[in-house]
Specification:
Chain lengths: ~250, ~250, ~250
């Protein structure tokens, strides 16, 4: 494809690695750093100023750091103050508000809406249309499915917010809601359309509205009687144990 | 930031107040009026023609009026025939179809989808991804949380639609559904993931799927035993009583 | 409106019918074919390359075919490998991933997210924000309402996926979830916020979370005692029987 012309706007203090590739109609605001081999799709905005930009004379823009080998698909908006480690990727039309910290190899699905001020481990996968409230904490290898909502206010509206905390390897099924401040232990499975209104121990299988503890995920078997969880023994696509197997990877780690 | 060049398209009969600011790659169709100090973000379309534009030779474009001090964030689409009073704001990628009437100080969250022909009071706040069907009525100080759906057809598909009516100060929790034609009284609280299938009196606390009346919101207390509702006594951010207090503001009003 | 300038990028092997109309800031990748009288809105991407474009040297782009009299509204993204028959239309910001096959007269609502590798009959209507997983099959005259999710993995994550199959004339209410591999017979009605976890016979009225069979749709009556289903006897807007009536149309067919 021949780029007829390129409408990229860049601000002050921007560093784009020479090996990175920037699409058409992209706006990059002050203080953005884009790592080696990263790709920014068309119509993206990187380093979007915070709301105070519109109201405060002395607005100061925080840096925005996108690691190497990242892929930001088209129409995405990333606010100032985010830090993404290497191999960060997004679907289309992702909105990421300010001051999140993402580990490496995160994948944020199309239309997901990250409200800001949250902490993500490594290898987190949000599928499409996930809504993460401010103040959330997600561990490593967490997977969240479409239309899940993380809430931070039990009796809205409030100024005392508290986001959920989700442990490593936990899976949260479509359209489930994590209520304000709940802690979900590692290796849990939350069914689809579930209301998670209380803390859950590791390895919980929890489902329904209102949600109820169904049992231990380690008792879930496939048709052949093989255990399905912990899932890293049967699924490794894009995971760091994909060549060694999960047990050996854990040992070496 | 230096704007390398500006790709704004404007139609006939457009009035943009000299103090307003228009972003990059914006399209403004015929008959749009943008008030003082308002900001239109990048990639927005204002005054989008109705479907009949594509099918009728004699299409007539209705005026689109955006009040003063408004902020339309990037990638938003506002159809012709809307009227927004002052201090209207949107998140990103909001879609607002034709012929709504918005009072002042409305805030429409990222990805919200307003189907048109609805009436909004003042100080209405829709959080992200709210879906408002045609023919809805929202009072003043109403707050709606992510993925809530307003429905207007009980046995789809139909041509006899009837939208919900929501009273002043009412809060509707995430992923709740308001069925066709329901009326929710003022000062009510609808829990998360709730099915609202019948009319509710003022001060109702209603929750669950199927939804059930839990009680009167005025009996909900915090850990110190203080009542949480009506909420204007404990929350005033961006509200007109923020300096006077709710009681005095009501008196003066 | 005067187009100040036009920023259309087109790739190799692109055919745009002379009667088609292309908006501003549109990108059309290699191998796209756009039929007579079709309209592509602003900020659209047609023929978006697959993920392997970023990782494989020898990436080959599949053709993308959009039939005649189609309307792709602004900000939509259509991946390579899709085939849409005539009278295809979308709302705004639709994302359609690779290799779907759409019959004629499909309408895909604003913000809908089609994950790819699925088969759609004719006259399918997805309202806003519908999520269709890979490997789904939708019959003719199917209507799906906002925030419905089609799932293809029962115990995530998995590589053995199986999408749902939905029969002709079936209606799926807002926020319902079709679990992996379920088959819904023709002429069924799924209520709002329903979990469809098992196969359903034709004419099923199924509702709730967990979902339960309420009865036969043919027993649902309006206030006058007239049957509401099958719905083609009472609704014909945009349907092929709109001039003949449903019975006569079926006979002639």
């Amino acid at each position: 494809m021949i780029g007829l012309y390129h409408t990229i706007q860049t601000g002050k203090g921007v560093f784009i690695h020479p090996s990175a590739s920037i699409g058409q109609h992209v706006t990059i605001y002050d203080g953005v750093r884009i790592g080696a081999n990263s790709v920014i799709g068309d119509y993206c905005t990187i380093g979007e100023p915070l709301h105070s930009f519109y109201t405060q004379e002395n607005y100061i823009q925080s840096p925005t750091i996108i690691g190497a080998n990242s892929l930001i698909r088209s129409h995405s908006i990333i606010y100032a103050g985010n830090q993404m480690d290497d191999y960060f990727s997004t679907g289309h039309r992702v909105t990421i508000r300010e001051n999140n910290r993402f580990g490496s190899h995160n994948s944020i699905g199309t239309l997901s809406d990250i409200q800001g001020e949250s902490v993500f481990g490594s290898y987190v996968r949000l599928h499409s249309s996930v809504h993460i409230c401010q103040g959330s904490t997600l561990g490593n290898y967490v997977m969240i499915y479409p239309f899940v909502v993380f809430m931070n206010d039990r009796y809205p509206p409030t100024t005392h917010t508290k986001g959920p905390i989700v442990g490593d390897y936990t899976q949260v099924g479509v359209q489930s809601v994590l209520h304000s401040g709940v802690r979900i232990g590692e290796n849990s499975l939350i069914g689809a359309q579930t209301s998670v209104h209380k803390d859950l121990a590791p390895f919980s299988f929890f489902s329904g509205n209102p949600g109820a503890l169904i049992g231990d995920v380690r008792t879930i078997k496939d048709e052949m009687g093989n255990p399905l969880y912990p899932w890293p023994y049967r699924f490794d696509r894009g995971m760091p144990w994909s060549e060694l197997g999960y047990d050996r990877w854990k040992e070496e780690k």
